[in-house]
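Key idea: predict the complex, not the pieces.
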Amino acid sequence: EAGVAQSPRYKIIEKRQSVAFWCNPISGHATLYWYQQILGQGPKLLIQFQNNGVVDDSQLPKDRFSAERLKGVDSTLKIQPAKLEDSAVYLCASSSSRDTNYGYTFGSGTRLTVV
Amino acid sequence: KQEVTQIPAALSVPEGENLVLNCSFTDSAIYNLQWFRQDPGKGLTSLLLIQSSQREQTSGRLNASLDKSSGRSTLYIAASQPGDSATYLCAVRDNYGQNFVFGPGTRLSVLP
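Result:
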């Protein structure tokens, strides 16, 4: 079974620039999550999709962050404009309620540095 | 709102020691709890998942226990090795939401 794919692995941008991250979940996983992990902290949920609908985006800074999941498969997360405090690792995960364990599978993450 | 804490924040042990990592959560109405490992600069790798009806799960040298009523889980690592050096995170999925809430992690260093 292929894992969760994310790209790019690393990105360095200047503040006020825009950036986009891509995620391809495990085939058949209806639920997709984007997490932000600041150095030294645990991951924090940004947004959760069920198929192509948003379930929870309460912690997404909507003035600068946006996300979409077209056709209920791939997802993109965008930041525009970026701030210094957005420097973090952005993790994508997927899960399926049909999996009896109903656990998470994470991608390798995208490390963003804003300078 | 579910809150997850982990103690200690960092731990350094000599190779071969058995060790215990602790995870506490505030709301006992959980669906399951998952332990992850994270190597520097990498994503999260699932280690063990315990359903709310289970008391423990084992995989090789790892054993995770769950005491839902007291809001605690422990991850026991037997005969630690330098390759076990990483950050260990626990995450709780509660009965109300569909996402996991993570603890801040315990950074483990196993010295040769």
